[in-house]
Structures are given as structure tokens and as C-alpha cells.
What we know:
This protein is of the alpha+beta class. It folds into 2 domains: 12-101, Immunoglobulins (Immunoglobulin-like, Sandwich); 113-165. It has 1 helix and 9 strands, in the order βββββββββα. Strands 2, 4, 5, 7, 8 and 9 form a 6-stranded mixed β-sheet that branches. Strands 1-3-6 form a 3-stranded antiparallel β-sheet, with no helix packed on it.
Amino acid sequence: MHTESGGSLPDVTICAEPGPVIFQGSFVTVVCSKSGDYDTVRLEKDGSIFMEKDSEPSMREDRFHIGPVNKTITGHYHCFYRKGNTWSNRSEKLELKVIKEHVTQVPAPGPTMTSGTVIKVYTLEISVRMGVAGLVLLILLVILTEACCNHEEHHRLKCQNTVNR
């Protein structure tokens, strides 16, 4: 039995990284976040204990790394925290779904930043840097070719001057 502590708002949240829909064989991290100091964090699946571990008092979240996943991971998850004999409020429900095919998730409207968005930003940033690096290398190649040609021309003229003397 869980004893609620504090007010009516839950002080525990739950989310999944990279998201609640997971490709079979990949990995998922369930993140439980807390607003108070607790000793233990418990992850429950469909009303039964799934995982439990000591919670770091200085950290505001605890992570459960799961995988590689299969269909048995599909279900409803909740986080709870315990300090002594008192349990925190229950987190909202997180529904994890394991699928066989890759499905692109449509982001929710609004200014949210998911891990997928961060990856896309890094990918774009890397692509721009690679393009600039390629351009710099091309310019250096042109300069080197020009210097080589000038050196050969200078050497040829010097040889002609020596022969003409």
C-alpha cells in the first residue's frame, strides 16, 4: 500500500528515452524524476515491481536502462520513491510499446525538444562543419597547385637562362 506524502500534485514524473515506442532489439531508458529526497526508487510494470534501486539523494532523477527490448517490455509503468516507510505519490502512467518496424514519431505541437530533435540538430551542425572543412581543403589544394606550378615555371626559366649564357 502506498502512502501519499504532501499535497495533491504528484512529485514524481516518468518518461522514456528515446520515447515510449521502441523498436524491438533496441534500448530504452525509463527516467524517474523526483522533487524531494528519497532513499529508494521503484519502477512498477502493470502493478508489479519491475525494478528497484537506491536513489541518489543529490540527483533529481533516476534512470533504468532496459534492453535489448522485446514484446515482454510492452506495458504500463509507474515510478514511486520511498523515504523510510513513506512512499511518494505515484507518477503518471507511462505506456511502453515495443514494435517490430521502425515508426517515426510525430512530435507534439509546441516548443518541445526531444532527443530525436537534438540528434537532428547535431547532424545538421556536423554536416555544415564537414562542408566548410571540404571547402577549406579545396582552397588549400588550389593554393598548393598554384604554388607547384609557379615553382616549376620558375625552375624552367632558371634552366633556360643558364643554357642561354
